[in-house]
Structure formats: C-alpha cells, structure tokens
Amino acid sequence: MSQPLPDIVYYVLDGETPPSTSSDSASAPNPLTPTTITAGLHPEVSKTLHRLCRKALKDWHPTTPQPVLQILCGSAEMLAALDTALWEADPTGFLPHGETRTDPIRLLVSLEATVLGSPLLNLSGKSIAHWPGKILEIVAPTHESKQLGRTHFAEYSAAGRKPLVYPIKRS
C-alpha cells in the first residue's frame, strides 16, 4: 500500500504557456484547459491526471466499497469530456471510472455526492477549502492556472490547512 497523502497536495507542472488574451476574467476559459472544455484538458494536465489515476488504482481492489480517487469537474460538459478522455486514455490500459459510489475513479460535478475518506482531485476551478477530506490540485503551466493555484493556496492556508507543493517536470 502506498503512503498516505498529506491534507492537500498541489501538483505544479513546470513550463509556461502564454496568458489568455481575454481581459474579462469572468469570461476566461477554465485554466486547466488550453481553450475550451470541448478541446479537452491541457496536454500536461491530462498526462498528470492519468499518472494520478494509475497511482490511485494501485490501492484499489474490486471489493473496495468506495472510490480510491474522486474527480470534481466544473460542469457536466467537463465530466463528459473527462469521461471520454479516460476511455480513450491508453490503448494498452483501461482506467476504470464512472459516476457511482463504487467506481474506483469517480467523476463528480458537485461536492454533495463526495465520499469522505477518498481523495478529491479538484478540476472544478473553484476553491473547496471547506471540504474536510484530502484534496489534490493540478496547476497547469498557464498564467491563469498559476494565478488560480495561488488564490486556492491562500484560501486553504487561511482555513488552517497546509498544502504540500509537488513540482512535476515535463516528460
């Protein structure tokens, strides 16, 4: 069995992609994506997501009563795109996932459906500092994502939580 996760883990991807040209932050795209959710996740986020899913599945067994990783999506559209991406992820390996409480990797749109005791990967773009379980965040190599990561980090710290930053080099 792998070592337990700290309370909050930030996976920070190195490199930089240019900032968005949008001057209205309310209409800016989700910083985890290159342009829109239909285009899919930022390529570096996608690689990291697949690594996290594979690592989480090492602790899963078919008799496990709850997911080993929950992924909070920002919308139903993002959930559908992520579902497709996980089906098509690797032609040599399947990442078992779904939306039920017993799926090893569980996709969610709302915090109300989460299971405490299973880590939650936040891809929603919203701060979830109030959620009492283990939280994972991926910071993409974009200006927008880094700024959002800083904002969430400050909110987690203000809530008395101690995020661990884990830098990831591009492969």
Would you spell out the secondary-structure blueprint of this structure?
Layout: E1 8-13, H1 43-57, E2 69-72, H2 76-87, E3 97-98, E4 105-108, E5 120-122, E6 135-139, H3 143-158, E7 163-168
Parallel strand pairs: 1-6, 1-7, 2-4, 2-5, 3-4, 5-6
How is the largest sheet built, in terms of strand order? 3-4-2-5-6-1-7
Distance between the termini: 26 Å
Number of strands: 7
Shape: globular
CATH level-1 class = Alpha Beta
CATH superfamily: DNA polymerase III subunit chi
Structural class: alpha/beta
Name its key features:
Rossmann fold; seven-stranded parallel beta sheet; 171 residues; alpha/beta
Structure overview:
By secondary structure, the chain is α/β, with parallel strands linked by helices. It has one domain: Rossmann fold (3-Layer(aba) Sandwich). It contains 3 helices and 7 strands, in the order E-H-E-H-E-E-E-E-H-E. A 7-stranded parallel β-sheet has the order 3-4-2-5-6-1-7, sandwiched between helices. About 12% of the residues have low confidence.
Sum this structure up briefly.
With 171 residues, the chain is of the alpha/beta class.
